[in-house]
Amino acid sequence: MTAHTEDNELLRKSMSGFGLLAGGANVIMQLAHPAVGYGVYESTVETGQINRHPVKRTRTTLSYLAVAGMGAEDVKAAYRKATNRSHTAVKSTADSPVKYNAFDPDLQLWVAACLYRGFEDVYYALYGEPDADFLDEMYQRCHVLGSTLQMPREKWPSNRLAFENYWNAALDEVHIDPTIRKYLYGIASATFVKPHVLHPLIGPFMRFVTTGFLPERFRDEMELPWDPVKQRRFDRLVRALAMANRVTPTVLRQMPFNILLWDVRTRMVQGRSLV
Question: Are 24 and 209 in contact (CB under 8 A)?
Answer without folding.
Answer: yes
